[in-house]
Amino acid sequence: MKRLQNRRAIVTGGASGIGAATVERFRAEGAEVFIFDIVPGDGVLVVDVSDGDQVDRAFKDIGAVDIVVNNAGISFRNAAIDIAPGQWQRVLATNLTGVFNVAQAAARGMLLADKGGVILNVASTNGLVGHPYYADYNATKAGVIELTRTFALEWAPKVRVNAICPGYVLTPMQEAEYTPEMMAEVNARIPLQRHATTAEFAALFAFLASDEAAYFTGSIIVMDGGETAGGTASWHGPQV
Fold first, then answer.
1. Is residue 59 part of a domain?
2. What is the pLDDT of residue 176?
């Protein structure tokens, strides 16, 4: 299928994980895709999304786009009492301010274009329920959800804005933070008994970016294998 033929898209954090899978899927769907990432690589535009000036310069160089996937994000596993001010500021700057910077820059062009555009913000189930040891990350993802709702109201009907809340996804970031034993413990608590794949999220983004999803805006879409369906499924139990 070529649902994104002749569309221009930006994927932030597009060098790895969900972002890289989304870049691959969007290109297969016919889109011209630009990658924003802080890690240099083939075809990557080195942009720190937390720096509004860098984001504005990148958009000036690229021009207007039709689709944005706001995927760039970082996390660290620490008890709330141990989070240092520098870590707190870094996580908020990337995960929340970065989403705002990119969405704002994209919307300026989309609102002027006859066909408008689509912005997809990557939030998390961590923004919906409490998760121990990720206080800074959780706060940013809750903020992304509220930014999404606000953008959707302000920029309708030209720009559709939705948030996607992944549960556990098998990415390099996830594998770096969890031991095999922790991964197995998590899988046992997920009704579908596994982590999601990055390709599954890329498929969701391709649908939401397409005209098939034309009535989706302001939506908070959870894809977590049933993790949060029971309300207490996210409880990790006492950990040190």
1. yes
2. 79
> In Å, what is the CA distance from 212 to each residue of 8, 91, 159?
17, 34, 15
* Bridge partners for 164 per DSSP: 122, 221
pTM: 0.93
Q: What is the pLDDT of residues 25-61, one digit of tens each?
A: 999 999 999 999 999 999 999 999 999 999 999 999 9
Which residues face 223 on adjacent strands?
A: 166
* Token couple for 26: 């969007």
The residue segments making up the domain with residue 126 are: 8-169+198-223
Task: Match 């924003």 to its residue by tokens.
Answer: 36
Q: Residues with Cβ < 8 Å from 81, sequence gap 6 or more?
A: none
Tell me the average pLDDT across 97-117: 97
User: Domain with 64 in it: what CATH number?
Assistant: 3.40.50.720
Does residue 239 lie in a domain region?
Answer: no
Catalytic entry in 134, 137, 178, 215: 137
Q: Which residues on neighbouring strands pair with residue 32, listed in sequence order?
A: 8
186, part of any domain: no
E strand or H helix at 137: helix 135-155
Q: In total, how many domains does the chain have?
A: 1
Q: Is 168 a catalytic residue?
A: no
The answer to whether position 235 is within a domain reads no
